[in-house]
Amino acid sequence: MSLAQHLPALQVVVPLLAAPLTVLLRRGSLAFGVALAASWFALAAAIALWLQVGEGGTISYAIGSWPPPWGIEYRVDSLSAFVLVLVAGIAAVVLPYSRASIEDEVPPQQHYLYYTMFLLCLAGLLGITITGDAFNVFVFLEISSLATYVLIALGRDRRALMAAYQYLIMGTIGATFIVVGVGLLYLMTGTLNLADMGRRIGSVQGTRPVLAALAFLTVGISLKLALFPLHQWLPNAYTFAPSAVSAFLAATATKVAVYVLLRFYFSVFGQSQVFGQLPMQEAMLLLALAGMFVASTIAIFQADLKRLFAYSSVGQIGYIILGLSFDSVHGLTATVVHLFNHGVTKGAIFMLLGGVALVMGGTSLARIQGLGQRMPLTSFGIVLCGLSLIGVPGTVGFVSKWYLILAALERGQWWLVFLIVLSSLLAAAYVWRFVEAAYFREPRKDTGDAVAVPWSMALPAGLLVAATVWFGLDTSFTVGSAAQAAALLVGGPR
Amino acid sequence: MTPTGTALTLGGHFTYFITIFLMIGGLFILIARGNLIKKLVGLGIFQTSVYLLYIAPGKLVGGTAPILSDAFTVYSNPLPHVLILTAIVVGVATLALGLALVVRIREAYDSIEEDEILGLDAGPVRHEEAR
Question: Is B104 contained in some domain?
């Protein structure tokens, strides 16, 4: 019983403490064992918390028994539990995958450091999600970000260094904007606890510092979640990072940033303030649409698959923000469900591309010609996930788009339905680029000798591809949780 | 508003003016300079401005540390100091990592000018050529 009571703290503390342990162990395989145990524990804890929240409602955990709002509170509600399951789940799948993957892409003497950084990044992301304290969000954000910069810099290409540097600059500006916003809110409300802030903000509603805080937080978080046009750091970071890192980041990092945005918008400021007093709705709608169209169009013209799908990520974030801008239960359901669905889909794609890089020696479209013959299962998996990005029924992408379209119809915005479908055609165009190269071109003679993708990579990737289809057919877990979370958010400040 | 009133407001807002000046200055360096080290300096100045934003409002003129005693009635808020201590640590870590990356970039490119570096790289992802 006592262990179950402390699950919210253990959720973060176990990966956080396992990280220095991997440094002390130094040996790659020992570090791998520790990291694997920690990440699987994190998944088990996340699922347990999700079940607890489902039965008993929101869990509040006072760190060090200092009661909130004075102490730091860890708070698990239906939204954060859902995001915890996503983050911990992806980590638990990517970690076994990464062993063989980094063998190929990272020098052996750095292997244990990879696991250290991976665990720190995981701890940071879980911490952001679970904490109920505004300043704590910033601290965990920086823990995960600093680890992310190092992970990206591990990439073999020297451009990985520049990508990490640029992300460091952009990410730190974003994080500093978030601190400014939190500071202004603290000045006005005198509290750092998010729930308490949400209650107290009513008396200072609409004052200039609060509106300035809203602006700072919006820009800062948008940088972290790569909302168009603040996405400049993302394509290079995803392209040049090691494959396992791309898979983990694409599936979790931006999604957690979306969670932070939802948290501040709906649990702290309250929707009446965000959408009532400022034209945030129009601004978000416009940026989301711009992201959907511009980024997807850029994706069509990429020569490298990793970069192509990185731009596709920017476009897909557009859908997530589009749902948010509707400011309705259906819209938020679409946002939360697409958060999960896109995370699973992109995680699967980047993991499969890691296998492609291993066998073919690269992921450029020229190099993967004839992939359908060389690696039939992998190509099939990428096509399946591509269908999910387009939104074909039977895949998770369809579920998200369905709720987006429902939300648009609810507001009577027919033209938006048209735009959503039109942007899906752009997705079809960039997925077709892959299909054309993989199935309608002869294999190149000079590419690699027949190395097989090791099981430790194929199995986790296959698992995520299966999830892409499974959650497209059985939506009770994803849509059920998302609808619950959306209802909670629209319920306003707690 | 009387002249003294204006002066008081200006005096009262003094720290905010400094904060904004540092913030804009830091961001400007960050955007205007192509040298990777200078960019990190700009980033440092930008982050420092936030320390001031937090700490200045926590201080009351004549206030003491919050010690329970009849002798003191006016207290300064210690919490912002603690928060900024954390933020300083984060800032130092970020700067250290940034500088470490610049060292590696210099080793790989033999330059720390952003436009030179970006000009050096064009073409496919390099691990293909390595094979």
Answer: yes
CB pairs below 8 Å between A and B: how many? 98
Domain ranges of chain A: 1-275, 279-494
Is B91 within the bounds of a domain?
yes
Q: Nearest C-alpha of chain B: how many angstroms from A1?
A: 34
What's the domain range around B110? 3-121
Nearest-CA distance from A241 to chain B in Å?
11
- Pair A79, A485: CB distance under 8 Å: yes
pLDDT top residue among B41 and B69: B41
CATH number, domain of B60, equals 1.10.287.3510
A179 lies within 8 A of chain B by CB: yes
How close A181 gets to chain B, by Cα (Å)? 10
User: Considering CB atoms only, which of B50, B128, B131 is closest to A183?
Assistant: B50
Total domains, chain B: 1
CB distance from B1 to chain A under 8 Å? no
Tens-place pLDDT, residues A236-251:
899 999 999 999 999 9
Residue A260 — pLDDT band, cuts 50, 70, 90?
Answer: very high
Please tell me what DSSP assigns to residue B33.
Answer: -
A162-172 residue pLDDT tens: 999 999 999 99
Å from B4 to nearest chain A CA? Answer: 25
pLDDT value of position A366: 83
Q: What is the mean pLDDT of chain A?
A: 88
B130/A41: higher pLDDT: A41
Is residue B60 predicted with pLDDT exceeding 80? no
Residue A448 in contact with partner chain B when CB distance is under 8 A: yes
Q: Residue B106 falls within a domain, yes or no?
A: yes
Q: Of B30, B57, B128, which has the smallest distance from its Cβ to A364's Cβ?
A: B128
Asked if B118 reaches chain A (Cβ–Cβ under 8 Å), the answer is: yes
Q: Which of A49-58, A200-209, A251-260 has the highest mean pLDDT?
A: A251-260
pTM exceeds 0.90 for this model: yes
- The stretch A410-424 carries a mean pLDDT of 88
The answer to whether A317 and A273 have CB atoms below 8 angstroms apart is no
Whether B126 maps to a domain, the answer reads no
